């Protein structure tokens, strides 16, 4: 396993990590969830990503039970939670958002569900236009100084919002966010490769990226026939299936990427994951899996990283034709 610094912090995070979105407490049994965590941990994964909203809190309960049962040394792994959406399906006004009340209560609830004394990472899951950023920043700072969280970050915030958060931190000598969790993959590039460019140098922003394989779209199963034999992630998210599978231009690009991957002796999933890892501003790639065999294959993607030579990367760009305009900085 390769380890990378989380932005400018000293925290070392595995290049590949395991997330529980869609799967834990929903798509898979608790036994399979445990097998996935064991397989990941034995492969060197040290970061497990979660959120209050995943399976309405059940995902954190499942992960917490597993962590307690396995009893790994606490200094060998990290766990995150996120707050914004709330835990219930129809949250009342103060059960969601980034105001002080929900952030504090959400943190306490996550600690209880995960059965830990502190969160290694705590994310503001989306920006909250109804709460002043300074209130959110002060609350996260206080949670750090109280020892309830170690680092904090954002998820799907734009560059201006992250910059404003840092402004308030500098102005008031507060602990600043160190990480952003954006969607990043071959088909979704603008934020990570363009919008955030000034933030990497100015603030030392780290990234824990999600959906590196576009929820399974960048895998062999859509081309080798195996997709008919299983219920995929996109079957569970009709909106994503409609958006991705209905785009014939996009699907033609993926077919060409599939062929390129085969030419270079790797599955399409390895090509997609390694492409993300080639970006020096990616701290960790969050994997999702519903089967141990699927996770095993994706964990082996690091072995394919040397195959992504400059020539192969150039061929990928020729296929994608979606490189964002660079930002002068």
CATH structural architecture: Alpha-Beta Barrel
Say what the CATH topology is. TIM Barrel
Q: What number of domains?
A: 1
CATH class: Alpha Beta
Low-pLDDT residue spans:
none
Mean pLDDT reading: 93
What's the short story on this structure?
The chain contains 14 helices and ten strands. It is α/β, with parallel strands linked by helices and 329 residues long.
Task: Detail the topology: elements first, then pairings.
Elements lengths: L2 E3 L6 E3 L1 E4 L3 H5 L2 H13 L4 E3 L8 H13 L7 E6 L16 H15 L4 E6 L8 H13 L3 E6 L4 H14 L6 E2 L9 H6 L1 H7 L2 E4 L11 H4 L13 H8 L2 H16 L4 H10 L6 E4 L4 H8 L10 H11 L9
Parallel strand pairs: 3-4, 3-10, 4-5, 5-6, 6-7, 7-8, 8-9, 9-10
Antiparallel strand pairs: 1-2
Helix pairs in contact: 2-3, 2-13, 3-4, 5-6, 11-14
Question: How would you sum up this structure, described in words?
Answer:
With 329 residues, this protein is of the alpha/beta class. The chain has one domain: TIM Barrel (Alpha-Beta Barrel). 43% of the residues lie in helices and 12% in strands. The chain has helices at 23-27, 30-42, 58-70, 100-114, 133-145, 159-172, 190-195, 197-203, 221-224, 238-245, 248-263, 268-277, 292-299, 310-320, and strands spanning 3-5, 12-14, 16-19, 47-49, 78-83, 119-124, 149-154, 179-180, 206-209, 284-287. It has an 8-stranded parallel barrel with strand order 3-4-5-6-7-8-9-10, surrounded by 5 helices. Helix 4 (100-114) links the parallel strand 5 (78-83) and strand 6. Helix 2 (30-42) packs across helix 3 (58-70). The longest helix is centred in the C-terminal third of the chain and has 16 residues, at 248-263. The chain is globular. The relative contact order is 0.13. The mean pLDDT is 93.
């Amino acid at each position: 396993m390769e380890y990378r610094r989380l932005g400018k912090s000293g925290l070392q995070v595995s290049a590949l990590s395991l997330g529980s979105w869609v799967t834990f407490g929903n798509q898979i049994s608790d036994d399979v969830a445990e097998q996935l965590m064991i397989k990941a941990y034995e492969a060197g994964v040290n970061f497990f990503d979660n959120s209050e909203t995943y399976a309405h809190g059940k995902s954190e309960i499942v992960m917490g039970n597993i962590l307690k049962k396995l009893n790994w040394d606490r200094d060998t792994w990290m766990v995150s939670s996120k707050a914004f959406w709330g835990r219930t399906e129809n949250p009342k006004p103060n059960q969601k958002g980034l105001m002080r009340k929900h952030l504090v209560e959400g943190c306490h609830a996550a600690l209880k569900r995960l059965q830990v004394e502190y969160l290694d990472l705590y994310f503001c899951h989306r920006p909250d236009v109804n709460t002043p950023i300074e209130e959110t920043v002060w609350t996260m700072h206080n949670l750090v100084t109280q020892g309830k969280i170690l680092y904090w970050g954002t998820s799907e915030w734009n560059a201006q919002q992250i910059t404003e958060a840092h402004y308030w931190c500098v102005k008031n000598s507060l602990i600043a966010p160190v990480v952003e969790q954006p969607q990043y993959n071959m088909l979704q590039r603008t934020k990570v490769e363009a919008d955030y460019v000034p933030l990497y140098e100015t603030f030392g922003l780290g990234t824990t990226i999600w959906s590196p394989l576009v929820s399974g779209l960048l895998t062999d199963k859509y081309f080798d026939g195996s997709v008919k034999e299983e219920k995929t992630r996109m079957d569970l998210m009709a909106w994503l299936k409609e958006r991705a599978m209905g785009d014939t231009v996009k699907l033609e690009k993926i077919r060409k990427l599939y062929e390129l991957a085969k030419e270079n002796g790797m599955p399409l999933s390895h090509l997609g994951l390694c492409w993300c890892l080639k970006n020096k501003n990616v701290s960790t790639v969050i994997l999702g899996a519903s089967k141990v065999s699927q996770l095993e294959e994706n964990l082996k993607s690091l072995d394919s990283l040397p195959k992504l030579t400059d020539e192969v990367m150039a061929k990928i760009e020729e296929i994608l034709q979606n490189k964002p305009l660079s930002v002068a900085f």
